[in-house]
Amino acid sequence: MTDTVANLPPVSEMMRDAGLEPKKQFGQNFLFDLNLTGRIARSVPDIETIPVVEVGPGPAGLTRALLMAGAPRVIAIEKDRATAPILSRIIDAADGRLNVIYGDALKTDFAALGLNEYAVCANLPYNVGTELLIGWLHMMAAGAPIKSLTLMFQREVAHRITARTGDAQYGRLAVLTSLIADARILFDVPSTAFVPRPKVESAVVQIIPNAEKIARIKNLNALEQLTAKLFGMRRKMIRGIIPGVDWAKYGLAGTERAENITPEKFLELSENIVL
Asked: Which terminus, N or C, of the chain has the lesser number of Cβ atoms within 10 Å?
């Protein structure tokens, strides 16, 4: 029951009892602030009606918040088995609503979870956050029943995800995200909210798949190859990177750089230019 979860000892106390310390090799930065974790959990669309998948629960501050916000079921994927004493206490208090899978989220078969629909909510480890996001975007494009992603990133990465054409942060990640989903930064999170305190600030990003956008994508691999090639030499004009193309056919002069090309134009080019 929610009240049982709410009556658990503070996260910091449970960590001390379990002898748990953040591990650098797992990119762990833990959240203790219940107001903040509650705000993140309440930001998940339809939190009270669909299951939530969480990656890297650690000492379960956000896990507890998701349960207290009314999630009917939380599936937490955790690589660090040292968290087991804490997570087992949350399981006992969660009245059957929490399942923990010990394993690497990058290697997890999310389809095997057997969920008809689900949201993802996580304070992502800094060292694998972008790789996880790209995997989820691919899953969305392939029709996976992901209803939303509510994710904590380094603020720099958050701006790369939500950047617009011409922005300094605009690149492959923004193009891929904007052609599959609608993304926005919900709020910033100061470094002081974490233990240990990271050297960077963070932000919570929400990404909602857009079925109309996904339907326009014919070859995601071709799109990724094209963005990799053009952004890989982003200071060069596109005609110098891919010679022999009639750029005027696509409404371009050929003197543009990757940062000047809209996601929609990238999609058009990827369907017509063979690399």
From this structure: C
pLDDT classification of 24: cutoffs 50, 70, 90: low
CB 58 within 8 A of CB 28: yes
- Mention every residue, 6+ apart, whose C-beta is less than 8 A from residue 113: 53, 75
C-alpha angle 53-57-62 in degrees, rounded to nearest 5? 85
Residue owning tokens 């994508």:
217
Residue 235: how many CB atoms within 10 A of its CB? 7
pLDDT band for position 224 (cuts 50, 70, 90): very high
Distances from the Cα of 171 to the Cαs of 130, 210, 214, in angstroms?
13, 20, 19
- How far is 103 from 107, CA to CA, in rounded Å? 8
Helices (H) and strands (E) in the chain, counts: 12, 9
Q: pLDDT tens digit string along 83-113? A: 999 999 999 999 999 999 999 999 999 999 9
Q: Give me the amino acid identity at 90.
A: I
Residue ranges of the alpha helices (H) in the chain?
2-6, 11-18, 34-42, 61-68, 84-93, 129-141, 155-162, 172-180, 211-216, 220-232, 238-241, 263-272
Q: Are strands 202-209 and 146-154 parallel, antiparallel or unpaired?
A: antiparallel
User: Residue written as tokens 């609608």?
Assistant: 182
Contact 32, 11 (CB under 8 A): yes
Write down the residue that tokens 């701006």 correspond to.
159
Q: Residue 24 and residue 42: Cα distance in Å, rounded? A: 29
Q: Residue 23: which pLDDT band, with cuts at 50, 70 and 90?
A: low
Q: DSSP character for 101?
A: E
